[in-house]
Design brief:
By secondary structure, the protein is mainly beta. It has two domains: 115 residues, Sandwich (Immunoglobulin-like), CATH 2.60.40.10; 95 residues. The protein has two helices and 16 strands. A hairpin with a 7-residue loop joins β11 and β12. The longest helix has 16 residues. The protein is globular, with a radius of gyration of 21 Å.
């Protein structure tokens, strides 16, 4: 049987790879001998199901807790429907860098329905799989509006009150409606390279036009702080537990 030239064969394989229906990130290569994997770990997620919508977004946080004898790296990959546009910001986790953000940006043409992704992790020759679910609803979000001003109020307050956090607005944010189908109180999420900020506000007239903010550092399972702004502009820090959430996230 006549063999194809290597250049032709390479082009054929490349064209075949473009036909795959499953999206997401590929597993990183196994470590070099100097990066030997040992021990075990536990993988945690903040939640395993969230709502989204065509053109919307979503964030899952993945974090490992290494055992005492852990060494080496944990390799992450994601298998998901391509139209969810799922990507992780870090594909190698270790004892020093333990968290990763799995960010979704569903295509505007994605039909409503329940979608399942699979997070695949590999360490010390052992592969584990964790399912995550995305409930895509028939919903759309408006052009930038009140949420931008509410967010800026909290950014100004953070800059004055918590300068140790640095410039949280240093990079452009990915913005999406946190909870499709929730009205009266609007909920928004802003994602940047280092932070997730949630903002919600009561769409009423003073004195009922309060707003709240929840701030989480990327890779952390729990929020760092929360705050509430009153109608007169006063902002004060509140317990994280007082920030309103829905549907388990």
């Amino acid at each position: 049987m006549k063999r194809l030239p290597s250049a032709v064969l390479g082009m054929f394989l490349l064209s075949m790879s473009g036909c795959m229906e499953v999206g997401g990130d590929a597993l990183p290569p196994d470590p070099l001998p100097a990066e030997r994997d040992e021990g075990d770990y536990t993988l945690h997620t903040r939640f395993d199901t969230l709502r989204s919508f065509p053109g919307g977004g979503g964030v899952f946080t993945l974090r490992i807790t290494p055992d005492e004898d852990f060494a080496g790296v944990v390799r992450l990959s994601v298998q998901s429907p391509a139209a969810l546009n799922a990507r992780v910001d870090r594909m190698l986790l270790d004892a020093d860098s333990r968290g990763a953000e799995l960010v979704l940006h569903p295509a505007a043409s994605l039909p409503a329905g329940m979608y399942t992704m699979k997070v695949i992790v590999r360490h010390a020759g052992v592969q584990k799989e964790y399912p995550l679910h995305v409930d895509v609803r028939e919903w759309s979000q408006t052009d930038p509006g009140q949420e931008m001003g509410k967010r800026q109020d909290f950014l100004d307050w953070l800059s004055a009150t918590h300068p140790e956090l640095g410039n949280i607005d240093a990079r452009p944010s990915f913005r999406f409606c946190t909870y499709p189908e929730i009205l009266i109180v609007e909920h928004w999420t802003f994602v940047s390279a280092d932070w997730e900020m949630r903002v919600c506000f009561h769409v009423m007239i003073p004195p009922d036009d309060w707003s709240m903010m929840l701030l989480r550092r990327a890779g952390a399972l729990q929020p760092l702080l929360a705050a509430r702004r009153e109608s007169d502009g006063r902002i004060a820090e509140i317990p994280v537990s007082e920030y309103p959430t829905h549907f388990g996230y």
